[in-house]
Design brief:
52 residues; 60% helix; mainly alpha
């Protein structure tokens, strides 16, 4: 009975840990995603107006 309980706890832990580890290894760095839409150095910024 104890062996089955240990096995059930181990399986539950694996079900919780594996998706978390997978998400951390496949997700792209947030800083890299942020910098993709920024202007390159030396680029003239476009004119804009702020409607009030």
């Amino acid at each position: 009975m104890k062996k089955m309980l240990k096995m059930a706890v181990l399986m539950a832990a694996c079900l919780l840990v594996i998706p978390t580890v997978h998400a951390q290894t496949t997700e792209q760095d947030a800083d890299l995603q942020y910098a993709t839409n920024m202007l390159k150095p030396g680029t003239v910024a476009p004119d804009f107006t702020c409607p009030l």
